[in-house]
Amino acid sequence: MTGRRSFPEESAVGVGGFVREDTPTAEVDRREAVMASLTGTVRELIDATIRTTVDDDEVHRIRDGLAALVARLRTAQLPGPAGIRYNAELRSWNWGNAVMGAANAIAPPLRVQHDSSVCHADVVLGAAYEGPPGLVHGGVSAMLLDHIMGEAASAMRRTAFTGTLTMRYRRGTPLGPLHLEASIVREEGRKIFVAGSISDAGGATVEADGVFIQPVGTPAGGGR
Ligand SMILES: CCCCCCCC/C=C\CCCCCCCC(=O)SCCNC(=O)CCNC(=O)[C@H](O)C(C)(C)COP(=O)(O)OP(=O)(O)OC[C@H]1O[C@@H](n2cnc3c(N)ncnc32)[C@H](O)[C@@H]1OP(=O)(O)O
Q1: What is the value of ipTM here, to two decimals?
Q2: What is the number of alpha carbons within 13 Å of residue 54 lying toward its C-beta?
Q3: Where is the signal peptide (predicted)?
Q4: Residue 216: CB within 6 Å of ligand 1?
């Protein structure tokens, strides 16, 4: 470990699949940008696939071309999911994360800003996130809120797992630009109570309350 300070969640390694790597931060940043550029194109592929009206023969040709690209990516693979990795400088990266993973085209991705008391994020959800016609799938709303509320609970310095998440879908959430917010309401021992919301230009469409719990054996805070 670095002499600066111990990693805040070192004791959580094994609990959450955290992996220490000695990759320098500049190299992590470089590789993340490279992967994000690929992911952006795969994200476009998903949207284009959903919305395409090309004929059957063209669909088959495109499938064969993509299968060849998949085979090239498969020539060098991690043995399992990406997990959360971190280096001695406490730069962490979780490129497979379902909500914000830089290498995950299913992730919108969500980029969460941390202000003093509120986490917030702006995101644009397209055709891949549809549930009811033109509206965001309720499970997608829950997934995004789970993540931003978890980030609020963790404040990026402690591990906090979702214990209970309660959603109120006040009206349909339209596909398009959306704003998310989350903040800690109160804390009781290892329990962190968090409120969150999704809004469109007309106000809140979804509100949520969550209880996030620090697993036993992880420190109560500190770090960054
Ligand atoms: C080295 C790296 C460091 C990095 C630093 C961090 C950086 C942050 C990075 C990135 C942030 C990303 C943020 C993402 C967020 C995403 C969040 C998720 O989606 S998490 C996945 C979904 N959730 C699960 O899979 C949990 C599965 N459940 C469990 O693991 C356990 O049940 C757990 C931990 C939730 C509770 O287990 P127990 O054994 O600790 O709990 P007991 O000791 O029985 O209870 C403690 C207290 O909590 C209450 N409690 C327990 N379970 C509860 C529940 N499910 N709901 C509400 N309360 C519960 C109990 O009533 C008790 O309360 P009383 O002390 O008596 O007042």
Answers
A1: 0.92
A2: 11
A3: none
A4: yes
